[in-house]
Amino acid sequence: MINRIRDSIAEAIACVADGDTLMCGGFGSSGVAFNLMDALLDHGARDLTIVANNAGVGETGIARLLAENRVAKVICSYPRSPGSVWFERRYEENAIELELVPQGTLAERIRAAGAGLGGFYTPTGYGTALAEGKRTEIIDGVGHVFETPLSADVALLKAERADRWGNLVYYKTARNFNPIMATAARTVIAEVSAVVALGDIDPEQVVTPGIFVDHVIETEQAVA
Amino acid sequence: MINRIRDSIAEAIACVADGDTLMCGGFGSSGVAFNLMDALLDHGARDLTIVANNAGVGETGIARLLAENRVAKVICSYPRSPGSVWFERRYEENAIELELVPQGTLAERIRAAGAGLGGFYTPTGYGTALAEGKRTEIIDGVGHVFETPLSADVALLKAERADRWGNLVYYKTARNFNPIMATAARTVIAEVSAVVALGDIDPEQVVTPGIFVDHVIETEQAVA
Amino acid sequence: MNRLTPEQVAARCAADIPDGAYVNLGIGMPTEVANHVPADREVIYHSENGVLGFGAAPAPGEEDPQLINASKQHITMRPGGSFFHHADSFGMMRGGHIDISVLGAYQVAANGDLANWSTGSETYPPAVGGAMDLVVGAKQLFAITRHTLKDGTPKIVERCSYPLTGAGVVSRIYTDLAVIAVTDAGLQVIELLAGNDFDTVQNVTDAPLMAPDTARRAQG
Amino acid sequence: MNRLTPEQVAARCAADIPDGAYVNLGIGMPTEVANHVPADREVIYHSENGVLGFGAAPAPGEEDPQLINASKQHITMRPGGSFFHHADSFGMMRGGHIDISVLGAYQVAANGDLANWSTGSETYPPAVGGAMDLVVGAKQLFAITRHTLKDGTPKIVERCSYPLTGAGVVSRIYTDLAVIAVTDAGLQVIELLAGNDFDTVQNVTDAPLMAPDTARRAQG
């Protein structure tokens, strides 16, 4: 019997290793797997590469990992936000590597990895400093940049509900990067607000089919 | 006030012109906009290029357009099925051009057009006759074929429900190519089993947001 | 010199958005535009974080922390709205499905160049977000910005000194002093705001402006 | 020579699919496999047309024309199933998320080459479907086919004469006469079916086969 539901959050994230690349769902503080990220601190992994839209604010999530010096590199589109104090500090100290990627290119590179593509041409960023050193091509008169797929060892996702097959649905704008990250990591871990019985999620409404999901943890965290 | 609902099917498809490229949703006979395709016969358009998974069976849909000599070219993955008599006849007569595309490449080319990408590398078809003449590249040791985006003048879609903004939901495996074709055509026309009030489709469950849809026609056709 | 408040600039921008338009609102001042849709219009707002059809800010106490816009501010949903993931959201932008993109700016140049992601500083981190996707994908691009920095440094410039987000992409500029069209002939003031005269606005602008009268003469 | 029925071949193939596997069933004989899952297992079937977690064929009178598999046959849904569009469906395949792909074949060669999309005819149209995506994406590929054409022409061959779908991609072959593993040393018969002896099967096979005994000796 297929059962992706785990009893222990420590068991769910045991697979994370030093030096891993982690995808962390979320946009700002919505759709972030805060419980999984807290557990990661106890777990002790370091030298991590974080793929996410932002670089954390305040003292939670990615910001907390940065504060504890667990992060070697951030691949993201918008690291600087009001309250992104730890990222700014590490950046100023030159203690962290930043790969800045236009948000749509970040999303598409993640999707490309999940969908088994070898890369793609996008007009985004052509002619800008973010395309420097990248292969470019004029296609139908428009400049394009070649972008490569972006995969990860582990994805830490936040979803709303899950069943034992690992099917996931999300909640409002907490969806954001979570569904595409679910496709692009070797091991996919989701924290969810509620586990429901198999069949309780309408097959028309499943956003992330369980085929992509390895471990599910039910948390107490309220979402609304 | 935004209103994508049309009273007349003839009005909805009036934009189709001779020589147009049409995307037709469907897989086998599921998710096919049969009413729109019938109306297209009355409309009179000819010299059409059809982008679809199959090339029609029996005397309906694409098969009927082929029988009436309205089609110059078919871009599809699986033109030959039990009952695809009209396609086979036109093919044998050398009266029709066939661009055979692996199904996943067909889907991805359509999506690439809808998402504004300039093309992509896929491992699918590398080293086979279907990659002959195409640009190839070895990426991380794996052979890839370069594939270009595939767009259309008009898409003829079948959906289950729509609201006046053009938001669409589908029904079971009738979904298939319809949502991606909705993104890749200049004009998108959907026939639906039912028009519902704005707000009746849960925002979590919208599959094709109305941003992609130009014209909606409610049909009497039962789907189940 | 009188200046509009950011809310007033947002309302002025909103007044130029036609009925039925699909409009992306970028991070910063642009997200304010959603609060000022004229009552006679239906405008469908898009936010990069996966939402179409959102409305104004919620009443105090009705905020949902998981329902936010690009600026991470709370929003409400209108009937007919939808949620989707980031790849789909940026497919809409890059794929040419958005009619108007309203973006903030560090600098806008006389030729429509936009700089809004990096100051080029070694220690102040850059942040690009969805801006580069919008400048290639949206059919029309409005920049909304204060006319000058607090110290008076012009943000409407002859040539951007900061790294570009996109070249020649801005068609309209909405500031606390003026509405300006980017034309082949240069920056054409459409409307002087807050009761300032042309010379006052030209004096705090690095690029030459054409006065509203000039526009009328050119059109006549 | 005795031959299994297509249903029996499908059941024999289903017996080798482990609990918990994600399995794509291609057009033709493969779709029959979903009707023969052993009772002690949960297997999640995928069909290219956008469905995961389907079950056996419906009872007569309970067919839904809009709920079909790759062969356009009616199916049923199991609790936990899901629907999705074609780009997502092929992302699952190409992206390496499918454990086993069961495909039909025109020819399978001793080196695992598969031909199942074109006879090379000028007048008989080719049809590729999702086969080329599956051969690059699925972790393991089973071919399921009659051992010979009706006229006795072998389909298990030394080298494919038809255009290839994929080179060296098949790991197991299920026919009405035998279960065969594709190994570096060649085609290893795992099991002779329907009571035939080895020579009978070798005689209708174009490529050299290794007898089951050889396997046991090699392993011992």
CATH topology of chain A: Glutaconate Coenzyme A-transferase
Strand order of the largest sheet of chain C: 4-3-2-1-5-8-10-11-12-13
Which structural class should the secondary elements of chain A be placed in? alpha/beta
General form of chain A: globular
CATH class of chain C: Alpha Beta
Sequence of secondary-structure elements of chain C: HEEEEHEEEHEEEEEHEH
Unreliable sequence segments of chain A:
none
Biggest pleated-sheet summary of chain A: 8 strands, mixed
Radius of gyration of chain A: 18 Å
- The CATH architecture designation of chain A is 3-Layer(aba) Sandwich
Cα-based radius of gyration of chain C, to the nearest Å:
17 Å
What are the low-pLDDT stretches of chain C, counting only 5+ consecutive residues below 50?
none
Number of domains of chain A: 1
Mean pLDDT of chain A: 96
CA-based shape of chain C: globular
Order of helices and strands of chain A: HEHEHEHEHEEEEEHEE
Helical content class of chain C: 10-25%
Short description:
Chain A is α/β, with parallel strands linked by helices. Helices cover 21% and strands 27% of the residues of chain A.
List the helices and strands and how they pair.
The complex is a heterotetramer, with two copies of chain A (224 residues) and two copies of chain C (220 residues).
Chain A: H1 9-12, E1 21-24, H2 34-43, E2 48-51, H3 62-67, E3 71-76, H4 85-92, E4 97-100, H5 103-114, E5 119-122, E6 136-139, E7 142-147, E8 152-162, E9 168-169, H6 178-184, E10 185-195, E11 215-218
Parallel strand pairs in A: 1-2, 1-8, 2-3, 3-4, 8-10, 10-11
Antiparallel strand pairs in A: 5-7, 6-7, 8-9
Chain C: H1 6-14, E1 22-25, E2 44-47, E3 51-54, E4 77-83, H2 86-94, E5 100-103, E6 107-109, E7 114-115, H3 131-137, E8 140-144, E9 156-157, E10 172-174, E11 178-183, E12 186-192, H4 198-203, E13 209-210, H5 212-219
Parallel strand pairs in C: 1-2, 1-5, 5-8, 6-9, 8-10, 12-13
Antiparallel strand pairs in C: 2-3, 3-4, 6-7, 10-11, 11-12
